Amino acid sequence: MGFVIGIVLCYQILYADVTNNIQAYATVKAIGYPDTYLSMVILQQALLLSVLGFVPASIFSYFLYKIAISVTGLIFKMSFHRIGFIFSMTVLMCVFSGLISVFKVQRCDPADVF
């Protein structure tokens, strides 16, 4: 469920960015750049969101693990395998959101925007 919510949140961020900059995307499209270039720009934004969101979240999670260990006395381990899996799922989630957001840019017509 968290994965789906993450996709929706990331999609909302990317969609708002695309909507706010639709004239810039239409201008780039009118100049002659292909849809694949615009798609790559949005996917780069999605990857940047995943990395910039993962770093502070993993640091915060590390401290939450320490608090949970001290309060409950249970042993929690944040292994590199778990970190790698969560990072790959975060990247997958953001890329999937980016692919959904790409459709708005591909559908925009420079003549309609201006």
Classify the beta-strand content into a percent band. under 5%
User: Helix fraction?
Assistant: over 70%
Domain tally: 1
The total strand number stands at 0
- Distance from N terminus to C terminus (CA atoms, Å) equals 40 Å
Report the mean per-residue pLDDT as an integer. 89
Order of helices and strands: HHHHH
Q: Rg from C-alpha positions? A: 18 Å
Which spans of ≥5 residues are poorly predicted at pLDDT below 50?
none
- Quickly count the helices: 5
Strand count, sense and barrel status of the largest sheet are: none
| Secondary structural class | mainly alpha
Name the overall outline: elongated
Structural description of this entry:
Helix content is 87%, strand content 0%. It is elongated, with a radius of gyration of 18 Å. The protein has helices at 2-20, 22-31, 35-72, 80-107, 110-113. With 114 residues, it is mostly helical. Helix 1 runs parallel beside helix 4 (80-107) and helix 3 runs antiparallel to helix 4 (80-107).
Summarize the structure.
By secondary structure, the chain is mostly helical. The chain has 5 helices and no strands. It has one domain (2-113).
